[in-house]
Amino acid sequence: MTAHPPILLLLLLVSVFLLGLHTLRQSSRTRGLRQELDRLREELIRSRELAEQQKAKLAQRSSLDNVKDEFISTVSHELRTPLTSIRGALGLLTSGMLGEIDPKAQNLLRIAAANTERLIRLINDILDLERMESGNAPLQLRRCSILELAREAIDAITPMGDDAGIRLELNSSAPRDAIYFDADPDRIVQVLTNLLSNAIKFSPAGSTVSVQVHSDVNSLLLKVVDQGRGIPADKLEAVFDRFLQVESADSSRKGGTGLGLAICRSIVHQHGGAIWAQPNHGGPGTTLWVQLSRSARSSDRTSAAPAAIASAERGEGLVLVCDDDPGIRVVVAEQLRQHGYDILEAGSGQEALSVAREQTARAAGLRSDAGLPTQPIAAILMDLYMPDLNGWEALEKLRDSPATASIPVIVLSVSPPTERVLPKGAAQGWVQKPFNESLLLAELQRVLHAAGGAGQVLVVEQDVEIAGALVTSLNGSGVRAAHVGTLQQAVDRCMMGAPDLLVLDTALPDGDGLSLVDWMRHQPVLSTLPLIVYSGRTLSESEMQRLRAGPAQILDKARVRPKQVADLVLMLVQHRPDTAAVA
Amino acid sequence: MRNILIIDDEDDIREVAALSLEATAGWHITTASSGADGIRAAADARPHAILMDVMMPGMDGPTTFRQMQQDPQIAGIPVLLLTAKVQGVDQRRFADLGVAGVLFKPFDPLKLADQICQTLGWADESLI
User: Fold this and answer.
1) B109–A124: do the CB atoms touch at under 8 Å?
2) Cβ contact, residue pair A137, B16, below 8 Å
3) What tens digit of pLDDT does each residue of B63-78 get?
4) A79, closest residue in chain B (CA to CA)
5) CA atoms of A354 and B11, how far apart (whole Å)
6) What is the DSSP annotation of A459-521?
7) How far apart are CA A167 and CA A153, in angstroms?
8) pTM of the entire predicted model
9) Interchain CB distance below 8 Å, A95 and B109
């Protein structure tokens, strides 16, 4: 044993050395960990402090808002009182009722009177805007005719038009029963008179300002078209800001307050609508567009959907309609087809089960049947009261089978959802009969979007070949894509439910695609919608700037092929956080 | 000739309103600078109508109006409130009081008489 003391000693030394090294490393790691922990703790404290500050700031802001409201209301009142004397005195003097006045003095009096009027308008406008934005001016909604309101506004503004030598006209392409909407009539007339008075102010004498009314499945579109000097492209949006006038001398020369369009926007937004400006196609002047939702009352929705929608590309998804009443199946199927859905029908719970299973097999390529679609079922519309296998039993069986368990179901029933409680997760939506088309579509859209999937892409493109290539390529990759060919259809589609991404052509039959972007960026739901502008023309620097206000990619048709656009779309859609989570 | 009572605490507004009604409609105008004075003046002058400010120190317009309604001698005289408040809530509140009408400041001096006639249904006035 004593034969190897040096070896033992060596071993001992090595062990001690290794132990030391280990301890050293360990302690440095502990130190590292501790530092990290300290850092995290500090960060936590800091973020808590920030949250507290934020909360305090918010509370402060809301109390500040109240103070501000009160202040503005008081100031307006206090300003009105002296203005009453000034206006009264000047008015009586300029009228000449109290005696002849020297022409020079008369001119000065006229200036004073005109500016008093302007100050009064300004105070009224500030108060108006303030009330709307603080929510102190709730809308008094009732069923209105857009034509009647437009006529009312034109009547009110005609004297101003006559003075300026401008003709006012009203045209409507809307069917007689498609002009109704829920609105606060005084407010809408205020918008229209404001737009008309603007149009008159900036139009040359002898020209015409026209009001045009159009209607579509869901919306009313009102245009005020002038032949004035127009708005520069980079100001199309800014004109809705407070106190912005295109030329600095405008406000004094035109007697405006600089708040008119801001008020219009506020009112239109309060109505859930949209307003935007666009230069006229191939001519001088500007068109102000106002879009409002049509009345949802079924009695106001009798006119058939325009053919434009029916001809839209398929691609909304495949829907299985299950109801024992063939009449209801036909109506529902027809309505959904018009909006781009493909339809399967089933007349009983049992049939629904077998159709759903077969379709799942077909979509998976395990089965092929000539003439039948090969896409998976996006949603099932299910009646509850049916003979044999009723809706409840059918739902249960759908959920039990792995092949059909994940298909979202919307119950179509005469009972309200509160009366017939379903087991949790059995159905994702509910539409009560008798239902109207827009309710059904909205619920279907909601359920389809809640289901996630690989996203929904809207292709707005005039060239059917390019659109076809894009849509086919996207659908083939499992991304639902729909195509529309005009600005109006695009707006309608977006109103029905926000897509996850938009591919936008600039040259559309009813206007420039970029005006859609302006509209979108003002819609709360659409303001952050990612956008691919696929343009055949070169965009100007100011247009690029307008686009860059939101998430946008700009691609040149001359350089980028549809397939490459589809690849980019796929990448963008699949990188969206919510769809990634589903996948 | 019509006889009108104007009640307003602002001297300038009283003067301008009085001048405006005299000049445009040729009416005879009496004025008072507070609610209490107004009630006395109404009882004395028995005007055809009363034009009264809403915000006055001491007794405001609505309170003055309610007191007038207690006095059978002047309860029947139509009262028009003249207000610088334009909020809808206020307007409805005034209308609920039972006044004959509400007019707004700043008024147009050339149209004030016309507005009063319209509100009160006086169709036969010869206005300038």
Assistant:
1) no
2) no
3) 999 999 999 999 999 9
4) B84
5) 88
6) EE-S-HHHHHHHHHHHHHTT-EEEEE-SHHHHHHHHHHS--SEEEE-SEETTEEHHHHHHHHT
7) 14
8) 0.48
9) yes
